[in-house]
């Protein structure tokens, strides 16, 4: 089990879309509907749906919105969304994985390609960068959940693989197939997490200089602003000094 890691500042960027509440709710609703369609419409019987509902609750999404998204799947109503993964390179040779849920593959591919090309990056073939990442379970807790020792102990007991703690909070990694079980065990000790999801964890990270970092963040923001994009993962590391300069 590891303790501290600078990996936390990689995670900060994926919160950008969460600040845009209505856009975030739209993306969460889409994930809930797709999750409900992929199995039982009952969160207790469908681990993916339970994760989607918990993440929606963590962002204070109203219960009515959550139920409406589940009902949409049960009624077989609305569009059929397809899960697509895009891979590419950003400024400074950074590897990026973009996860999307779309009802129009051509539209999404065009938008993703445009975002990359306009912001110093280029889209690559599927599999071009994902070999440098591991598919893992990711559980995030605020710093208030407990000190590093308490969280580490709880994570070991729950069967997690790795813990990274900082003043911003705690990042807990699990095997992909153990995510549901580990998050349930942690919740009994630490309370409800901020988020629980499947993630792409880079095997190696790339240090990004100030000039490249500014362009990279524009690229990530452009991707996250797209309605079809659910999450953007990257292998970039930006120093605290550069982050402060960029504000």
UniProtKB/TrEMBL annotation:
<dbReference type="GO" id="GO:0005829">
    <property type="term" value="C:cytosol"/>
</dbReference>
<comment type="similarity">
    <text>Belongs to the TACO1 family.</text>
</comment>
<keyword id="KW-0238">DNA-binding</keyword>
<dbReference type="GO" id="GO:0006355">
    <property type="term" value="P:regulation of DNA-templated transcription"/>
</dbReference>
<feature type="domain" description="TACO1/YebC-like N-terminal">
    <location>
        <begin position="5"/>
        <end position="75"/>
    </location>
</feature>
<dbReference type="Pfam" id="PF01709">
    <property type="entry name" value="Transcrip_reg"/>
</dbReference>
<protein>
    <recommendedName>
        <fullName>Probable transcriptional regulatory protein GRI97_01960</fullName>
    </recommendedName>
</protein>
<dbReference type="InterPro" id="IPR048300">
    <property type="entry name" value="TACO1_YebC-like_2nd/3rd_dom"/>
</dbReference>
<dbReference type="InterPro" id="IPR026564">
    <property type="entry name" value="Transcrip_reg_TACO1-like_dom3"/>
</dbReference>
<dbReference type="InterPro" id="IPR029072">
    <property type="entry name" value="YebC-like"/>
</dbReference>
<dbReference type="InterPro" id="IPR002876">
    <property type="entry name" value="Transcrip_reg_TACO1-like"/>
</dbReference>
<dbReference type="InterPro" id="IPR049083">
    <property type="entry name" value="TACO1_YebC_N"/>
</dbReference>
<dbReference type="InterPro" id="IPR017856">
    <property type="entry name" value="Integrase-like_N"/>
</dbReference>
<keyword id="KW-0963">Cytoplasm</keyword>
<feature type="compositionally biased region" description="Basic residues">
    <location>
        <begin position="1"/>
        <end position="14"/>
    </location>
</feature>
<feature type="domain" description="TACO1/YebC-like second and third">
    <location>
        <begin position="81"/>
        <end position="235"/>
    </location>
</feature>
<feature type="region of interest" description="Disordered">
    <location>
        <begin position="1"/>
        <end position="24"/>
    </location>
</feature>
<keyword id="KW-0805">Transcription regulation</keyword>
<dbReference type="GO" id="GO:0003677">
    <property type="term" value="F:DNA binding"/>
</dbReference>
<keyword id="KW-0804">Transcription</keyword>
<dbReference type="Pfam" id="PF20772">
    <property type="entry name" value="TACO1_YebC_N"/>
</dbReference>
């Amino acid at each position: 089990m590891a303790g501290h890691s600078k990996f936390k500042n990689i995670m900060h960027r994926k919160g950008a879309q969460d600040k845009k509440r209505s856009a975030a709710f739209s993306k969460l609703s889409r994930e809930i509907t797709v999750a409900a369609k992929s199995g039982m419409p009952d969160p207790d019987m469908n681990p993916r749906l339970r994760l989607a509902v918990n993440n929606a609750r963590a962002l204070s999404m109203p219960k009515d919105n959550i139920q409406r998204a589940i009902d949409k799947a049960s009624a077989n109503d609305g569009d059929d969304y397809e899960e697509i993964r895009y891979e590419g390179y950003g400024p400074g040779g950074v590897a990026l994985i973009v996860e999307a849920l779309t009802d129009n593959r051509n539209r999404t591919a065009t938008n993703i390609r445009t975002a990359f090309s306009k912001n110093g990056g280029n889209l690559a073939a599927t599999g071009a960068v994902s070999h440098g990442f591991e598919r893992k379970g990711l559980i995030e807790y605020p710093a208030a959940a407990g000190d590093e020792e308490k969280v580490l102990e709880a994570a070991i007991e729950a069967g997690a693989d790795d813990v990274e703690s900082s003043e911003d909070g705690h990042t807990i990694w699990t095997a992909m197939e153990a995510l549901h079980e580990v998050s349930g065990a942690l919740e009994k000790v630490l309370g409800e997490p901020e988020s629980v999801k499947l993630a792409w964890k880079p095997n190696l990270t790339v240090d990004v200089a100030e000039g490249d970092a500014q362009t990279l963040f524009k690229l990530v923001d452009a991707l996250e602003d797209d309605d079809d994009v659910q999450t953007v993962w990257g292998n970039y590391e930006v120093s605290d000094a550069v982050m402060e300069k960029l504000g």
